Amino acid sequence: MSKECYHCNEPVPSGSNFHVDILGETRDMCCPGCESVAQTIVENGLSSYYQYRTAPADKADLIPEQLKALTHYDHEEIQKEFVRTNDNYREVTLSLDGVSCAACAWLIEKQLSAAKGIHQIKVNTSTHRALLSWNPEETELSSLLTLIHQLGYKAAPFEADKQEEEYHRSMKQYLYRLGIAGLATMQVMMLAVALYLEVFGDLDEEFRNYLRYVSLVFATPVMLYSALPFYMNAWRSLKARTLGMDVPVSIAMLFAYFASVVATVTETGEVFFESVAMFTFFLLLGRFLEMRARRKAAAITGNLLKLIPVMATLSSGKRVPARTLDIDDIVVVPPGEHLPADGIVISGTSAIDESMFTGESMPIAKSESDTVYAGTINGDGNLTIKVTKTKADSLISNIVKLQDEAQMSKPKVAEIADLVARYFVAGILIISAFTWFYWHETKPDDAFWIMLSVLVATCPCALSLATPTAITCSTSRLAQFGLMLRRGHVLETLCKVNRLVIDKTGTLTEGNIRLVKVNTFINTTEEECKALAAELESFANHPIAQAFSSFRKPETTYFERVENVIGSGLIGYHNNSEWKIGHKAFAAPSTQIADEDNYQVWLSKDNQVVAAFSLDDPIRKESKEFIDALHKLGIKITMLTGDSSSAVSKVANELDIDTVVSGASPQGKLEYLTSLPEHEISLMVGDGINDAPTLAGAHLSIAMGSGTDVAKASADMILLGDQLTRLIDARELAMKTRKIIRENLAWALGYNAIILPLAVMGLVAPYIAVIGMSGSSIIVVTNSLRLLKENG
Fold first, then answer.
1. Nearest to 641 by CA among 633, 654, 651, 632
2. Where is this gene product found (predicted)?
3. What are the pLDDT digits (tens) for 263-297?
4. Among 275-279, 326-330, 470-474, which range has the highest average pLDDT?
């Protein structure tokens, strides 16, 4: 005879092994859903439900609707919109609901880091976002989102519009809670005046008790509804066996409320209903103002994604959602509209406003074969674009991702502050307990409220907010400068830089190289030499190669095979002959001519020189201003270049460069960098493949936005425009950020150092404790927001 499920009375499948101890016996369950529901009923002390029920329960749904919806995020088509692929991992930015402090972030990171398939998880408490990367072969995204939900937080792929809706919903809830707490506080305070100040003279005990019960009626909604966020945060922390910021606050409120209930019922002792209501009101007010301030910093990066239009027009005239565009789709963009995707112009000309990326106000001319980006604004021409990247891989999405990454990378001082904050909460609980014991022996009537003051006044919220809010604000400000951060240490290191190591071509110079003169050495025409050089250079990704591109003859193939010798040049093979193009030392080492310093590129066949090419690369207009500004800051300048021509000394003299290292190979550049004294903190700026090793090896590195992908991948920061003076602005901002972090930490630590002994001595009233704790957090956040202003 088959068994029946004790919960729903359906048959128990053979071989299943689901059980729950109910009413002293082990009961069989048909599925994990029924087992989970029954276990929850038992754990909540509701086992009597099974004694008095008149019918079996419906079969439990294994996955609640809210969690079931998460499985949709596992579909490949849906993931295209927000998931990025990085090596063997997938990566997504999540928006989180319920995160209130550093302890919440620590809890999520700790629990998810232990999950199977997780590569990395970083949480930013300022923006309420997380950066999650996982191995899709080992786990599914829905499983990880479910795990976050089980911790008590809500998580979903970040979308600017949805997060804004969630923000407004949260703020509306806070306003409701705040309104109820405010109204209750006014009523309870009036009653407290009658109770404690005896404004009615000798108050009869009957009326005294009546006022206490009325106070209980007003304080109860505050405890059950208004203060709910604090209990939930505290419960999450305790469930994970950690101590969050809201643990001491919740303990203080619950102690005060239940002690007052007991005093009201027994008609003995003091009541603290006015303290409970006031605690909650001021705490909610502080949290509300803090959320609004933090939102201001978080919105800057989130608003970038709003620049991508909702709809796009295909070449067929059909209107489709922009998020559904795929690679190779052809879209038409009329004048004045935002571009819906990254792509290549296949017809039309226009001027594109890219100021949201570069910070440069002048539109950039675009024509056939030029690259354009989602979110930028089309000028006065019609463009037809071929989509080259999905929304998840677009430049604008990468900027948001990199900014989130940088904001989530904690400097050492932030990690120390978070650790101190966690242990500080434990210390506060211990100190509060000893405070109560001391005052209970010395002055029993005051012991309770003094303990409450200690619990509330010293909550280390400001300490946990001191660094992340400043980092979030400064990272958002850097984005306005056209600087993308790829590493978290950038702001710290930028303050310490005392040696700039900078490439010449495409960095100090425009990189808009032109061929001005050709010298031929054997019986080969100038046109043929240009065509040979153009085909060889077509295999390189360097500004010099662009100088020859117009001379290439696509209908003619000169070489069967071409090899790229990074930092030296190229070798081509044709009819058993070896052709070389590049530096003189590489292509024509034995050749001697009178004005050889004027030629930067040499072409040879079987080690016999064929031609030499003289190039011109104008110096950037802002290079002189940039170098002069660095000299005023006491930073030494080294120009590190692979070029060995006379152009090097010309640029160095014109810009007043301190040290020049020319004709350096990639290895030579790296060797120079490692040879610098230990006290010199280097900042490397470059743009080419040959700069990649040096960019990776410098203390801090910046790749030009017009540089190669390899250079960008090796750099700590990317300058989207070409304005070098933005780096001066970035350093100034880094110095201000360091100053503000120090101010925040000094305030947070100083406040706690002063308020703790005062609270322990009974010199801080409970309402003053609440105002002080909330005020200190608001001061820290407001101070950080100065970084978003033009003048800091």
1. 651
2. Cell membrane
3. 888 887 667 787 778 778 877 876 776 667 666 65
4. 326-330
Q: Find all residues with CB under 8 Å of 170, minimum gap 6, and list them.
A: 97, 291
Backbone angles phi, psi at 318, to 5 degrees: -75, 135
Instruction: Write the CATH number of the domain with boundaries 514-616.
Output: 3.40.1110.10
Cβ pair 250, 283 in contact under 8 A: no
Q: Report pLDDT digits (tens) over 221-256.
A: 988 888 888 888 788 777 767 777 778 778 878 887
Among residues 246, 404, 503, 716, the one annotated as catalytic is 503
Distance (Å, whole) CA 383 – CA 333: 5
249-267 burial string, b = 16+ CB within 10 Å, else e?
bbbbbbbbbebbbebbeee
Would you call 25 helix, strand, or coil by DSSP? strand
pLDDT at residue 717, rounded to an integer: 81
**Known catalytic membership, residue 503:** yes
Cα gap 509→512, rounded to integer Å: 8
Distances (CA, A) of 546 to 36, 538, 613, 665: 66, 8, 14, 21
Helix (H, G, I), strand (E, B) or coil at 320: strand
d(CA 784, CA 98): 22
How far is residue 172 from each of residues 257, 288, 292, measured CA to CA in Å?
26, 10, 12
Distance CA 477, CA 547 (A): 36
User: CA–CA separation, 476 vs 787, rounded Å?
Assistant: 9
Report the CATH architecture of 313-393.
Distorted Sandwich (2.70)
Fold of 67-158: Alpha-Beta Plaits (3.30.70)
| 371 membership: H or E segment, kind and range | strand 371-372
CATH of region 490-509+619-715: 3.40.50.1000
Residue with tokens 């093979």: 573
